[in-house]
Amino acid sequence: MNEAIDRIRERLDGWKSDLHFSRVQVRSLLALIVLVLLVSAGVVSRDNSTPIAAPAPLIITPSNITVDVAGGVKKAGVYSLPETSRVVDAIAAAGGAQSGTDLSDLNLARVLKDGEQIYVEPATLPNRSASVPFRPVIKSGPININRATEKEFDSLPGVGPVIAARIVAYRKVNGPFSTVEDLQKVSGIGSAKFAQFKNKIRV
């Protein structure tokens, strides 16, 4: 720094006679040059010493959904699962299916929706001994379209085995029905046919 100032001073002495600067002007110019050098050195030093902060990592927390698992599972109840969970994950959260339960009627790979119910049809009752006659449970009242079997749909007026199979297949792919009117989305069920059994179904 001192050497640079000395060189500048020597040059100023050489120019002084040519430029006819007064002694006060020369001192002012020299002071200005020194000030500029000091400020420049300070800026460079500060820039070199300032650490560059690394950007904070982006953390994405998946949200959860709530589903109700009922029927032939070991621990029926309401469970909170990641939003990308599937039917098989809901059944696993409920402890798995009960022994002998047939899961072929469910699409285990379907992605779950928040607030829906997964109903696993319980295993059929074992045969009773001859001394204790078996009395089947007779269901009365409207059938639940989210739990009904093909046989139960087939019992509705105007619904044969073909349409009953379509209803179960539609429910398996698209999930539970939100309203009874959603049955009209199934191929073969128009408004006239739906009116025949509307009062015999529920969700």
How would you describe this structure to a colleague?
The relative contact order is 0.09. Strand 1 and strand 2 (77-82) form a beta hairpin. This protein has a 3-stranded mixed β-sheet with strand order 2-1-3, with helices on one face. The chain contains 6 helices and 5 strands. The chain starts with a helix and ends with a strand. It folds into 3 domains: 2-45, no CATH class; 64-120; 143-202, Photosystem II 12 kDa extrinsic protein (DNA polymerase, domain 1). By secondary structure, the protein is an alpha/beta fold. The longest helix is centred in the first third of the chain and has 27 residues, at 23-49. Mean pLDDT is 79; it is low at 128-132 and 134-138.
Largest sheet entry: 3 strands, mixed
Strand content: 5-15%
Compute the separation of the termini in Å.
89 Å
Number of strands: 5
Major sheet: arrangement of strands: 2-1-3
What would you report as the Rg, rounded to the nearest angstrom?
Answer: 42 Å
Chain-averaged pLDDT: 79
Structural class: alpha/beta
Principal-axes shape call: rod-shaped
* CATH architecture type of the largest domain: Orthogonal Bundle
Helix content: 25-40%
The low-confidence runs, each spanning 5 or more residues with pLDDT under 50, are 128-132, 134-138
Question: Helix-strand pattern, N to C?
Answer: HHEEHEEHHHE
CATH superfamily of the largest domain: Photosystem II 12 kDa extrinsic protein
**Number of individual domains:** 3
What is the highest CATH level, the class of the largest domain?
Mainly Alpha
Give the oligomer, counting copies of the same chain as homo and different chains as hetero.
Answer: single chain
